[in-house]
Write a structure and sequence with these properties.
By secondary structure, this protein is an alpha+beta fold. It is built from eight helices and twelve strands. A seven-stranded antiparallel sheet has the order 1-2-6-7-5-4-3, sandwiched between helices. A three-stranded antiparallel sheet has the order 8-10-11. The two termini are 35 Å apart. This is Serine/threonine protein kinase.
Length: 223
């Protein structure tokens, strides 16, 4: 997938961002202001998510927070979750697996150790999978949407991918079609490695289907 990205690496910051995203030279400072002015969607112990308006479009910023020294030490010698999500999203786009458009990521460091990160994507107006199937739709439409979800699992098999957390809140429905989010646990395998792990996503999804009666009619063969 060939998108125009800019890269910047400074002493305490690593940035990859879509070209012309920022209007100032202080990229990190501008992002933090956009984040502060946004609408909080999720506030957890390790992450915060905001929806913001930037350059006349809606974006989503997910902040991966610094927890403590040992957490920082563990994440300093490897890709952090924001970078993993960004790389996975690019591969998903390449393979035709729907996910919100990745716009960039920023990682902060302090004394050489990981100190937090941001993932920036487009914002997609959507419902969680279970919410969509709880909403009145024509049955033919629901059957069609369910088939789109099943097609994603077929693409996982084709490209030897394990998402890692196929729960209903990680499957969004936008314009009656699914999109996957939270890609930081996603793994890309070769044939042999995938054979040992390919049942993980289906097992997780089956558990989700069993929790929501509205899904069972349309995904019964996956139970």
């Amino acid at each position: 997938m060939d998108l125009p990205y800019e890269k910047r690496r400074e002493k305490n910051v690593k940035i990859v961002i879509q070209k012309n995203f920022f209007s100032s030279d202080d990229w990190l400072g501008e992002l933090k202001k956009i984040f502060a002015d946004g609408v909080m969607i999720k506030k957890g112990n390790t992450t915060e998510v905001v929806r913001a308006n930037h350059n006349h479009r809606q974006i989503l910023i997910k902040k991966y927070k610094y927890k403590n020294f040992w957490h920082s030490l563990r994440h300093s010698g490897r890709q952090n979750r924001a970078i993993k999500c960004w790389h996975s999203a690019l591969k998903f786009k390449e393979y035709g697996i729907p996910t919100p458009l990745p716009l960039g990521h920023i990682s902060e460091y302090k004394h050489g150790l990981f100190y937090g990160a941001y993932l920036i994507t487009e914002y997609v107006e959507s419902q969680f999978l279970y919410q969509y199937f709880d909403t009145p739709h024509e049955k033919e439409r629901l059957i069609e949407t369910a088939q789109h979800v099943k097609n994603i699992f077929a693409l996982f098999d084709k490209h030897y991918i394990v998402h890692g957390d196929c729960k209903c809140t990680n499957i969004l429905i936008h314009n009656h079609k699914p999109m996957l989010i939270d890609l930081d646990s996603t793994k890309f395998y070769g044939y042999i490695g995938f054979q040992r792990r390919k049942h993980k996503d289906r097992k997780r999804f089956r558990h989700e289907v069993s929790r929501f009666p509205s899904l069972q009619e349309f995904f019964s063969e996956m139970l």
